Amino acid sequence: MAAKTVHPVLSQISLGDYDSRIDEITAQLCTAAEEIGFFAIKDHGISDEEVQRMFTLSESFFRLPDETKATVPWNPQNVGWEKLSQIRPSTAAPDNKESYQLQFGENMDGLWVDDATLPGFRAEALAFMRRVQAVSERLMVCLARGLGFADDYFRTGQSGLEICPGREVVTEHALGDMWTRVGFEPGLVVCNIGDLLMSWSDDRFKSTYHRVKAPCEEGDYYGERFSMAFFNQPCKDAVIQGPKKKYPAVTGAEFTRRAMENSYKALKAKTEKEMAAQNGTAAGAA
Predict the structure, then answer these.
(1) pLDDT tens digits, residue range 167-217?
(2) Separation between Cα atoms, residue 19 and residue 25, nearest integer Å
(3) Lower Cβ count inside 10 Å, N or C end of the chain?
(4) Residue 89 pLDDT more than 80?
């Protein structure tokens, strides 16, 4: 059976009057995290002009010659520029994208494109990252509260911005599954729960499988696609365990290693099962 796209409404949660509405916002965020694992936030304080300026800066970076971008190469700390070089854990195939991954702190030493090449990029990128980090911290306070943790439980860890002109694209997306189209609306920031937070919540919050689909339907956009994604990661030595201790305690570094292995194994088994079912149907019709 072919994949189908459905169109449920994604929760749009206002962060306006945050301090006085924190209990209400917490309830809305936790409901969305429990039911879908995706939600959009508005009234977050980052203007459309700031977002567009960062997209303009990122486009300027990717228009540079590859040999120039190669002077800030990607490294094992997951920072720097790469092109068609990363392996997608869920498929063991090259990720069809080019990206420049940024972080706060010393991991970026020597990996910022210099001002002679792209004037103001570092300063403006860091300023934008701090703006997004402030919004992210508000969300994490609410999610910590919802799980019964202290407000500062998800304390500062590793955070960073990934900018890229192309993301993983799939042409055969999950045969037999129902997919939700997440559209773009100015002023909204789409957020999703990751595997780690799902585990940290004892599976109360959902980490929903998501992909960028290759254009193939009427109305699909066929041009270049730029994206910016901000990630919160735990420090490598952070101890991860949910409030009910459903899973054994594990460090951030070990969780990441296991997640990459499990993601690939699960998708491989799922694909083999679906292909076997397809082959059986075809044989029966022959």
Answers:
(1) 443 433 344 466 677 777 889 999 999 888 999 999 999 998 766 666 666
(2) 10
(3) C
(4) no
- Taking alpha carbons only, the member of 156, 182, 139, 163 closest to residue 42 is 139
Instruction: Supply the pTM of this predicted model.
Output: 0.79
Q: Half-sphere exposure (CA, 13 Å, Cβ side) for 18?
A: 16
- Give the domain ranges of the chain: 4-281
Domain 4-281: CATH class, spelled out: mainly beta
d(CA 249, CA 198): 14
Please spell the DSSP secondary structure of the chain, one letter per residue: ---EEE-PPPPEEE-TTHHHHHHHHHHHHHHHHHHTSEEEEES-S--HHHHHHHHHHHHHHHTS-HHHHTTSB-BTTTBEEEES-PEETTTTEE-S-EEEEEESSGGGTT-SPPTTTSTTHHHHHHHHHHHHHHHHHHHHHHHHHHTT--TTSS-S-EEEEEEES---EESS--TT-EEE-----TT-EEEE--HHHHHHTTT-S------EEPP-STT---S---EEEEEEE--TT-EE--TT--S--EEHHHHHHHHHHHHHHHHHHHHHHHHHHHHHHHHHH-
